[in-house]
């Protein structure tokens, strides 16, 4: 189907509004190694699990086997961070007062009282705590909040990264799933006879599940099940629009009810625009309605119809219109006119 694999807009935790789909093969998306110092971690592969996807039993097991044994190591990391924060604060104060910078604070110089107060402050500062735990355990980052809560996250050095998998979780494999390696659909197919095509070759889809309430009908395309193209078309027929019935579209069989009369089920041509892999590993296709010309070309390539022939084209010669059928009508009219004239001119008979 020649479908580019892109990131899921719904799963993208970015606060920016992106009008176009972004390929999973872009340099800032196709990343597996963590680079220290970069606040924007857009990796798709992490050593730790996606916590929201785990069952309760798996989560308890993860806490017992992976989290609790690393408490001492994490506390040592927090002490080093606290020492760095105190050193940075002292250097800033010395610079503002024009004094010499004091000696660097080491982790061993941190007292238990200072460390206890720091732990208490971290428990109240969930943003910083989540970021530290995420980096330490190599967990997929959380999505950034939206609205008024986002203002509290805006000036944080430990801000959760702008990851496209922050809300839905990272995929179990590469985002392309090895199905397609196209970065974009901005290319034009060149037909050997008709030349460059305005639309790509459509794929034949089968109606596998009719429309059920607000849920759209399901189509089988290339081994995948996808939602029918949205809009006023043969898959999503809007019969009532201001008490008017659309007359330029026909309903495809099997959309409103299961088609048991058509051999093999109802089929129609559609065009696959983009694809992405959700966190569960499901390939999600985005379909749209194709043009009538593209359908005819696709049917001709399969031998189902013929619109092109290499025979000689007969020349068109304009001929004069035939008038052989008119005299009889004119004779009849003239005869009647003569009779009318004779009747008028004749003298009245004498009684």
UniProtKB/TrEMBL annotation:
InterPro entries according to UniProt: Rbsml_bS1m-like (IPR016712)
Gene Ontology process terms (BP): mitochondrial translational initiation
Region: Disordered, residue numbers: 160-180, 311-351
GO MF entries: structural constituent of ribosome
Biased composition (Polar residues): 314-329
PANTHER family for this protein: 37S RIBOSOMAL PROTEIN MRP51, MITOCHONDRIAL, SMALL RIBOSOMAL SUBUNIT PROTEIN BS1M
Protein name: Uncharacterized protein
